[in-house]
């Protein structure tokens, strides 16, 4: 098996503010986690899946995967305090002979098959990683603590980056081992000197942060 997906779902979801972790917030009838799990399972590009669950929620995550008939789920492990720690826990379950690792946030449930294809393609052209990004459309300003604008930042080369993010497995393992923390996986690879390509993202890959995000995604699903 060569392409392994790590689905990171171990966050607490503090900004969503529910009693249960964000991955188990209801999106329609099912827990949020069901949607990205189903999509990874159905993807022609993914061979195996590791679910990184909130600590103490491994069993409900495994039951959900079974209910959904997700035969590609090979392991379900508890996550860590930070996203990077959770990625590290998931990566420990990926066998040494795997070729590619694709890391995806469960908090971005609407994962299009086309984006999976787009982030995998550059790896066969020698890139050290590929991430989906959207060109920033708002004007950006750097603002001081007192609220005063310090500068207007040229936005033409700025992208908002999403997941899934794909990397050659060996290189990714070295990058994750060599660095303690980063806000996304690509930053670990960049810090290790890797060349990461940005491919076209998708507005559907909106990350659920607040209750409004969850409601918006639910309405998209109903359409
Ligand atoms: N994540 C994780 N382990 C952590 C923190 C985050 O697996 N310790 C995962 C989340 O489950 C999510 C993704 O990383 O799928 C992006 O994180 P974020 O949107 O910040 O989710 P939470 O950390 O759960 O939310 P909050 O920051 O509001 O608590
Ligand atoms: Mg967080």
Describe the model:
This protein starts with a strand and ends with a helix. The protein has helices spanning 34-42, 58-67, 83-91, 113-120, 169-178, 185-191, 211-222, and strands at residues 3-8, 26-27, 30-31, 48-53, 73-78, 100-105, 129-135, 140-143, 149-153, 159-161, 165-168, 196-200. It has a 5-stranded mixed beta sheet with strand order 5-4-1-6-11, with helices on both faces. It is an alpha/beta fold. The model has no long low-confidence stretch (mean pLDDT 96). The structure holds cytidine-5'-triphosphate and magnesium ion.
Task: Walk me through the topology.
Layout: E1 3-8, E2 26-27, E3 30-31, H1 34-42, E4 48-53, H2 58-67, E5 73-78, H3 83-91, E6 100-105, H4 113-120, E7 129-135, E8 140-143, E9 149-153, E10 159-161, E11 165-168, H5 169-178, H6 185-191, E12 196-200, H7 211-222
Parallel strand pairs: 1-4, 1-6, 4-5, 7-12
Antiparallel strand pairs: 2-3, 6-11, 7-10, 8-9
Bound molecules: cytidine-5'-triphosphate (CTP) and magnesium ion.
């Amino acid at each position: 098996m060569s392409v392994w997906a790590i689905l990171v779902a171990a966050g607490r979801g503090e900004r969503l503010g529910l009693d249960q972790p964000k991955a188990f917030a209801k999106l329609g009838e099912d827990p949020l986690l069901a949607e990205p799990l189903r999509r990874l399972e159905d993807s022609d590009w993914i061979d195996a899946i590791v679910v990184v669950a909130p600590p103490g929620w491994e069993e409900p995550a495994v039951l959900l995967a079974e209910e959904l008939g997700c035969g590609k789920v090979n392991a379900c492990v508890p996550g860590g305090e930070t996203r990077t720690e959770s990625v590290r826990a998931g990566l420990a379950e990926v066998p040494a002979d795997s070729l590619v690792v694709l890391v995806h946030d469960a908090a971005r449930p609407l994962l299009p098959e086309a984006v999976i294809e787009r982030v995998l393609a550059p790896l066969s052209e020698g890139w050290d990683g590929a991430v989906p990004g959207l060109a920033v459309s708002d004007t950006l300003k750097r603002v001081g603590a007192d609220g005063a604008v310090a500068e207007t930042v040229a936005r033409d080369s700025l992208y908002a980056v999403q997941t899934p993010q794909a990397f050659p497995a060996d290189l990714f393992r070295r990058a994750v081992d060599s660095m303690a923390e980063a806000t996304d996986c690509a930053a670990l690879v960049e810090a290790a000197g890797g060349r990461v390509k940005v491919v076209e993202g998708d507005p559907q890959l909106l990350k659920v942060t607040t209750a409004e995000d969850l409601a918006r995604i639910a309405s998209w699903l109903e359409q």
